[in-house]
Amino acid sequence: MDAISRFRPVCAALAVAGLLGAPAGGQVPGKDAPAPDVEAAPPAQGFADRISVSWVLVAVLVRERGGGFVDDLLEEDFRLLVDGEPVAVESFDRGRDAPVSLIVLQDLSGSMENGGKIDTSRRALGDLIARVRPGDELALASFAGGRLAVEVPFTGNRGALGEAMALWHPYGTTALHDAVAWIPEISSEGRHPKRAVLLVTDGVDNASAISPEVARGIIERAHLPVYVVGLGTHGAVPAAENGAVAADSYARLLQRLARASGGQYFAARRPEDVPVAVQATLAALRREYVLGFPAADSASPTFRSIEVEVRGGRLLAAHRLGYTGGPPADLPAAGPGGTNPAH
What we know:
Layout (H helix, E strand, L loop, with lengths): L8 H13 L33 E9 L14 E5 L2 E3 L3 E3 L7 E7 L9 H14 L6 E8 L2 E9 L2 H9 L9 H6 L1 H5 L7 E7 L10 H9 L5 E6 L18 H12 L2 E5 L4 H14 L2 E6 L7 E9 L5 E3 L3 E4 L18
Parallel strand pairs: 5-6, 5-8, 8-9, 9-10
Antiparallel strand pairs: 1-11, 1-13, 2-3, 2-12, 4-11, 6-7, 12-14
Helix pairs in contact: 2-3, 2-8, 6-7
């Protein structure tokens, strides 16, 4: 893949469909076709509403009420509900033992040059790469000036990842939400059920063609926890086109993105906060469980809420808020393994 690659909207739609309905690692139709040298457009606002889900994956991070991770649970410790109704868990990946397919999505826009943010990010991600285990795979992507670059496809080659980061030079505008919309296409090449995104950005979007809400909706449909490291993201959202000033902040927009996907937001206001946030992301990924269940195809997909209960409510579970698609397949409304654990 070229150092700077631009994708067609139709490719993104096909990739999301592949992610939701095909085995991990499958080829995406049209992926190898050369992309035209034109400005990349984000996926069309309505395309995700037309995708029907055939398999739903739910990454779950479990903590004690005091804050510590819990990584020794079994399948029968979980109870999964969709729209308030119990659903049988048909696949289960245990937390600490499962390898990870992680996308690192780095903001390379001009604002990242300020305050040495790009150098701080490069050092923190270098430490992350050094902690990659055998079996893990990372993909490295960046965005700036209206372009998304997949610099290194999924690999365990630390040297290739380090060499790509060494070439980073911030430039141009920030189309953060457009870049987020392309995450599902990148993820479709991952081999492991446990997949996630680490987004490093200062959050100052000044060029996206789609809104934060549309980008967040695409991520909600993509089964991907997004862990966001927000560098100094505490300013107000700029004026809207009609002159009204939005009351929200960039930090809040990024928090909503992370929460909706089942990930986490880290505010990195100082350089020393960045490596701490990156290490916390990796620690969380090591302890995620992945629950899966099939869902029926639907001509009219709708948003369906997801709840995960663990051990009678004594533990806290963080997970995606729902998915857009058909209802769970016609399975016994029971707990994992066909039983109804007491809660």
